[in-house]
Amino acid sequence: MDDTDRALVALLQQDAGQPYAALGRAVGLSTAAAHERVRKLRERGVVRRTTVEVDPRSLGLGVLAFVMVDSSAWMGDSAEAFAAIPEIEEAHVIAGAASVLVKVRTPTTERLQDVLRRLYAIEGVNGTQATVVLESFFERPPSPAL
């Protein structure tokens, strides 16, 4: 990726719905050249998808928790089981005291408790440790400048 690609990615992260003409003007390219660059970024998997960022609280999802999942087996092959729980936004196999770290959003702590029950139903899971977020300073996507 060159500096122009990084600038295009940063602009798309701010507003993925920008017209190619605006993207091109911002980075010194024609509309066609900006379109072609973005197409190649998609083909290479740099831009995975175009989406809308929604405020979770506006959807009634006021409880955010990070859950460390302990296991008695390798969990690297359990992606589908974790993905089947819709309240889980992210799941990561990790090194350390736990095997998997998941990010969960629910409307209530009762619903969080239900998610924890469903986590225990995944083969190999033998414990969880949930940390409920009281306040988020910020959340941001990865910076193309890094």
Structural write-up:
- By secondary structure, the protein is of the alpha+beta class.
- It contains 5 helices and 4 strands.
- The protein has helices at 3-14, 20-27, 31-43, 79-83, 109-120; strands spanning 63-71, 88-93, 100-106, 125-132.
- A hairpin with a 6-residue loop joins strand 2 and strand 3 (100-106).
- Helix 1 (3-14) packs across helix 2 and helix 2 crosses helix 3.
Task: Draw up the topology in text.
Elements: H1 3-14, H2 20-27, H3 31-43, E1 63-71, H4 79-83, E2 88-93, E3 100-106, H5 109-120, E4 125-132
Helix pairs in contact: 1-2, 2-3
Short description:
It contains five helices and four strands, in the order H-H-H-E-H-E-E-H-E. It is elongated.
The SSE order reads HHHEHEEHE
Beta strand %: 15-25%
Q: Report the total helices.
A: 5
- Widest sheet: strand order? 2-3-1-4
SS-based structural class? alpha+beta
Radius of gyration: 19 Å
Q: What would the principal axes of the Cα set say about the shape?
A: elongated
Low-confidence stretches: none
Mean pLDDT: 94
Helix content: 25-40%
Reported for the largest beta sheet, the result is:
4 strands, antiparallel
Number of strands: 4
Roughly how many Å apart are the termini? 12 Å
Which short descriptors sum up this protein?
single chain, 146 residues, alpha+beta, four-stranded antiparallel beta sheet, 21% strand, elongated
